[in-house]
Amino acid sequence: MKMLTDEQIFDILDGIATSEMQHQHSYLLTNSLEYTAYFQEIEALHVDLAEMTLEKPSAQFTENILTNIQFENQTVKKKSWSSRLTYIFVGVMTSVFIGTIIFTLLYLPTTKTTIDAPTNHWFEMTNTFLTDTFVKIAILANLVILLVIFDRKVLKPYFNHRKMRLG
Questions:
Q1: Which letter, b or e, does each residue of 144-157 get, where b requires 16 or more Cβ atoms within 10 Å of its Cβ?
Q2: Pick the residue with more confidence: 85 or 146?
Q3: What domain count does the chain have?
Q4: What is d(CA 101, CA 111) in angstroms, rounded to the nearest whole number?
Q5: pLDDT tier, 158 (very low <50, low <70, confident <90, very high otherwise)
Q6: Is residue 46 part of a domain?
Q7: Least confident of 23-37, 97-111, 141-155
Q8: Are residues 100 and 132 in the same domain?
Q9: CA of 118: how far to CAs of 38, 115, 121, 125, in Å?
Q10: Same domain assignment for residues 88 and 162
Q11: What is the residue range of 20's domain?
Q12: What pLDDT band is residue 143 in, cutting at 50, 70 and 90?
């Protein structure tokens, strides 16, 4: 059988152990010398703890501290601009989006002009591919950077403040 833990042995000594634990205890006492020696050590410690009295100065000190503690509602003061940070972020994102649309509309040529020049189909294909790929990568990188900034400047302070308020 498995030896009992310290808590279980203290439960037996306090008289609040279950009958199953009592049965295991009596079995271990009769069959295991190692458990018997360990139990006697714990029993001696239990007797010493029961006879030990609390010293008056330390008990009074604890009572005095507990009575003098003033529980105050601690509030975290926000910076004046941090409450508007979400609106600032949404405004910047909207202006970037509208600016991109306006730039795209103005950038597209409205008339077609043809120039007769020898064409290199390989160059046109790679130029278009590289431009498209570059634009996609640049947009993705900007989104990742904006998300990181939004996380550090808005979400992290918000959840830290919420954790302090709840905790």
A1: eeeeeeeeeeeeee
A2: 146
A3: 2
A4: 19
A5: confident
A6: yes
A7: 97-111
A8: yes
A9: 98, 9, 10, 15
A10: yes
A11: 6-68
A12: very high
* Cα–Cα distance for residue pair 136/147, rounded to 1 Å: 17
DSSP-derived letter for residue 76 is: P
102, two tokens: 């306006």
Residue 27 lies in a domain: yes
In angstroms, rounded to a whole number, what is the distance separating the alpha carbons of residues 154 and 81?
11
Pairwise CA distance, residues 75 & 164, whole Å: 9
Phi/psi region, residue 15 (left: phi>0; alpha: psi -120 to 50; beta: rest), is left
Query: For the whole model, what pTM was predicted?
Result: 0.34
Q: Does residue 1 form part of some domain?
A: no
> Is residue 20 located within the same domain as residue 63?
yes
Token pair listed for 129: 């591919």
Shared-domain flag, residues 31 and 58? yes
* pLDDT number for residue 87: 86
Mean pLDDT of the chain: 80
What 8-state DSSP symbol labels residue 155? I
